[in-house]
TrEMBL record:
Keywords: Signal. Residues 1-23 form the signal peptide. InterPro entries: AB_hydrolase_fold, DUF3089. It comes from Caulobacter henricii. This is Lysophospholipase. It comes from the Bacteria. It holds the Pfam family DUF3089.
Amino acid sequence: MSKSMLAAIGLTAGLLLVSSACAQTQAAPTANDYGKSENWLCLPGRDDACATDQSTTIVAADGKAAQETFAAATQAPVDCFYVYPTVSTDPGGNSDMTIDAAERSVVGQQLTRFGTQCRIFAPMYRQVTLAALRKVMMGGQAGDAALAYGDVRDAWNHYLAHENKGRGVVLIGHSQGSRMLLQLLKEEIDGKPVQKQVVSALTLGMNTPVDATGRYGTLPLCTSASQTGCIVTYVSFRASSPPPASSRFGRTDPQGLRAGCVNPAALLAGKASTEATPLSAYFSAKGMGSTAATPKPWAKGLAVTTSFVATPGLVSGRCVSEGEFSYLSVAVNADPADPRVDDITGDILVFGQPLKDWGLHLIDVNLAMGDLVALVGEQSRAYAAK
């Protein structure tokens, strides 16, 4: 397997994390002190990684454009606790605690916009790196997943003890970050007093195993925009390219369990998640890095200068359950006759060809960003009313 292919796979390989530490005997690592502000990517009221430009060009079907500005809430009613996906470019099996460009970039894509609804807390953690995941693909050992989870747990407990003060909280993660949150939900939240403070958990880009009643432990999948204490989860694939048999996304291993799928756009529209609903996507105007295609012009003759682009009505989604797989099926509603772009980018490319078993994992969050933020707002109001 070529080095470029390994790099592409490693970028999104949160599913390949092993559940145990490396087999090598090592001295117990020193716990991080989350009382130190430098161990946090984002904290409320601070000019940090989350203080990124979120300006957006809205491109209508007729090619006309308008600009949307962004401002974080000054008195947010709830908190958001975010754990980022596999992005670290550090050379070891686990990352260090230095904030690099990779961590800064991902919070701009996945987290900052939630600042309109919540106070943001995003810890650094010694995650399993891209380098470690490449080694796994070559038959070597992975990084220490237990170390990564221990950091997330410690950051969560510090947040509860020193920052939460009884407020409602939304947990947000993607890929490796969602895996960390699923373990946190299982070990530190489900059945504990703090469970009543969970507004919702967004475990995106990860197979959330649910039983026949749609529950992960005692936490149900969300079925309405006003429901709280529930989970929003999905993995995304193009409707024209559903998950192949080799895909790890969209299915779970435990017997009798399925990967959960919740369409946030459908909840806001008062529909079932299986009904096709337009998605409020916020795409990066510059694309998603070297493993995805460069976006084509968003409309004929349009020059975009903002960080993000929204294309109302261009994409829609519905949850599909077929065979072993459950996933968010994303349709592109192109009209070749209009001046707006007719496709989206987000596939992982190797030698110019998409890795079909990864689907649209790179843009899982971008695809429904507007819906996710609006849903958190609705759930926060419902939580406050209770």
